[in-house]
Prior knowledge:
By secondary structure, the chain is mostly helical. It contains 6 helices and no strands.
Amino acid sequence: MQEGIFGLIEVLRNIAFAAPAFILGIVIHECAHAYVAWKLGDPTAVVEGRLTLDPRAHFDPLGAIMFLLSVIAGVGFGWAKPVPVNWWRFRNPIRDMALVAAAGPLANFVLAFIWYVLLIVIVVAMRLLEPFFAIPVVGSIFMIAMIVLENIAVYGVAIN
């Protein structure tokens, strides 16, 4: 990592690109736990408002701080509030708890695959649309947008 203002810019860039992928990954992960628990008979997460794509419902302040600190260190690690589950409401508690537990990581694998496909689409689009980059204003705006999406997709694959 570079020193001085360039090091700070690099850290801020890393946070800006990693944060959207991290937030989406956390939200999808926790929603998957809540959805599977609900479908298997436990409405606890739904009643407590945790089956939502609103990041505020899943936000854990300490997990967010750890994410910021770990991005500065070059890692990108954090967490959300755990989804409340009442295993007494399941018909087959052992199997159903295992399914609820597996739903979050499985959602992250699916999301990583989606980010990877998006990354491939972006790279192919950049190659195909290369002539448009020669147009001064349009090319600059398009190139910046593609670079931002590409960096977010890279973090999306890495984080998930």
